[in-house]
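Quick check before the chapter quiz. The format below is the same one you will see on the exam, so make sure you can read both the input and the output lines.
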Amino acid sequence: MTPQKDNGNATPHDPDASDEASGDRRRISRKGLLKAALVASAAPLLAGGGVALARDAASTGNGPLAPTPECDDGDDTTPPQMEGPYFKPNSPRRTSLVTPGTPGVPLTVSGYVFGRACRPISGALLDFWQADTNGAYDMAQFAFRGHQFTGTDGSFSLTTIVPGLYPGRTRHIHVKAQAPGGRILTTQLYFPDEPRNNTDALFDPELLMNVRSVGNGRQGTFDFVLDVAQTPGPTDPPTDPPTDPPTDPPTEPGTSWASGTSYRAGDRVTYGGVAYRCLQAHQAVSGWEPPNVPALWERG
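Here is the expected output.
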């Protein structure tokens, strides 16, 4: 397959919308200060040489301005980016995108998913896709595609390879992230010290991973901060998956599955004359029909 340049076929968005000043919110955000600093100098780093992570804000309550979003003041959620032309729904559920003998530089990406109050989100959906070591995307099957759910502590881990380059883009990994019952964030993750970072029009330093070399491979870390309201407080119980607004009509058992509907764990639907039970809260989209996504639905 001949690689193509990513285009803007995703829903348009304004990555800086949360920084717009209006009414009593006329203030300078951390994100705005960060972008101004990045124009004048290199991205701020931790003492160990990597960018700060959202987990640092969660543990210390302060810290340096950082490309990887902090989440202590509610305005630094992970920036969205375009989906590009290579997304495919219905990826398999798996945490490893490689098999023994897969060519390429081994890469592990790990981290956490937080809400705006720096509390971890359990059961968040993460759907990854990327190019192979030659810069090509598999559109016939599901090579280098897979989704997973965060653990009870909000953690995730992905085993893959360093994606190859293709014309017009720097190295990157695509991801869709969604809290249970929440909106989908579509974005991309980037590698530090890549020469093409300076020429890629889509590159955003706020989406840089921490990456280090380990043996013959590399390890990357990144924390996602989703636009999910939370009540801060270290003594609070773990975050429960958000539920639909009380004005939403409940999903009645036995109703037909429908794209665009918000389903809760335990909801029952029928599809193609077969009954299914929901395993994970989510908003249905075309391609995620019950027989296609065993991670979300089971028969019976």
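If your answer matched, good. Confidence is low (pLDDT under 50) at residues 1-48, 61-67, 233-253.
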